Amino acid sequence: MRITPTGRPPFRADHIGSLLRPARLRQAFRDFSERKIGETEFRVLQDEAIRGIVKLQEEAGFRVVNDGEFRRGSYWGRFVQLIDGLTVKEATYKFHDEHGHELDFTAPHVSGKVRRGQAIAVDEVAFVRGVTDRVAKVTLPSPSTMHFWRGRQWADVGVYGSPEAFFADLGKVYREEIADLAAAGAQYVQLDEVALAMLCDPGARAKAKAEEGLAEQR
To answer: Of 30, 39, 159, 201, which sits most exposed with the smallest number of CB within 10 A?
Structure first.
């Protein structure tokens, strides 16, 4: 990827986060989770949807494209699925819909020592590189995603003595993954920092401060 004298990439706009999944792909996720289709058929349907979304980005004039996160059920789902030591539990925070209603959601939870046993998004990059000549972008959930959403209950008791020890292991996961992404041809790796944006909400900031105070009391 050519870098301009200002140090910026050679494009002015790209999309952030997941793109809307087509109905056929949403159904494929449901069918796969219910074991109505196998992994091979699921992969074929994902490939088809990704080819379509890459073409849409090209037609829109983007000089950087990704797969729309179409291989993921959520922006962090695949990360948790493929990394040892992570599982899913209910988040301590809540989202609000457009009507102001509170919605429960799930979040990553640390259940064991964190280790990268296999690649997370390397196959995503490899596929995109095979269907376009545009700059290949890939996203990863930020490190805070694996800690923030469950507050002081972010890990099973006794797994890590401190958040610092956890983030040391987690940092190694990111270093290994980003190195392999670069080797696979990823030219643009974006870390999605949702937790930081959440702190723009005064209510979320107050909850985070309360969680911090409770942690210090422990």
So the answer is: 39
